[in-house]
Amino acid sequence: MSGHVAPKSMYYGVFGALMVGTALTVLVAFFDLGPMNNVLMLGIAITKALLVVLFFMHVRWSTRLTWVVVASGFFWLLIMFGLTMSDYLTRGWVPGTWR
Amino acid sequence: MSDAPSAYQPPPVAIHPAGHDHAPHHPYLQHHFDDMGQQAEASTLGMWVFLVTEIMFFGGLFMAYLVYRHASPQGFQEASHHLNIYWGAANTAILIISSLTMAFAVRAAQTSQPARTQVFWLVSTMAFGAAFLGIKAIEYTDKFRDHIVPGPYFQWEGLYPKPAEQFYSLYFAMTGLHALHMVIGLGIMTVIAIMAWRKTFDSDYYTPVEVAGLYWHFVDIVWIFLFPLLYLIGRHYHAG
Description:
The complex is a heterodimer of chains A (about 100) and B (about 240). Chain A is built from three helices and no strands. With about 100 residues, chain A is mainly α. Chain A is flat. Chain B has one domain (about 50-230): Up-down Bundle (Four Helix Bundle (Hemerythrin (Met), subunit A)), CATH 1.20.120.80.
């Protein structure tokens, strides 16, 4: 038994990308881009998280069963965010209701 | 896990006491698994199931953050402005470096590197983890000094004292829970480093290193989201 052994160069590559992403997100934070600030910030964070999950955590070479479990975790997180915000974002839409 | 067509040669065969007669197998293979690959697969999957519960655990706090930030975006920006972006960025870099050394620790075990190489990468990971906690301690000290720890002594000079207190409640809850995970991670790494020192791991058996690595990388991912959401939202905000 020995899973996929990735070359060291790949780990350095992912590491470099994560560092560049960190520098980029700090740089972007100093400019007022309106709503784009949040979009870029979260976009960079999600990209960095994906890199860690796929390469550092070896999901890229894992079985489909592992893929399903990992994806389900983030899917349930989105259900929680989605259902909760569907409440908070719609309060006061109907006149006379509590907000 | 399916590649490497049986590079497995039963090295030191498990020796059982009398009355336990069966085919030779790897000493770390539990009897309810067919082979080392299946055993490793089960452990990794189990760890991922745990990490999914962790996603939901931290997810609840991110949910609270989202609701309160939506309720007072300016208040959160003003509160975030007080955090030191350089400590935050330094800690992000430190955690990413520790993830790299962790990945190398797993790789060292995977490729049957000598015990001292495995221990070197594990101890490096722990050193960066400790550095992260050290910086966190400096930051927490500043917060206590400046009276921006939520509670009876909370003081806020800005326009939004209430949202600022909510922000710092979430700041301490989220970074505190994250720091607790780091402390637990250091404990896990200590155990793994001792096991590695005792020559437990090689290309046939390295599941504990792999699984501990999954935990460490997960804690890194939580910080990857905490850093921008807590430190970076107030940088372009000008009070007034």
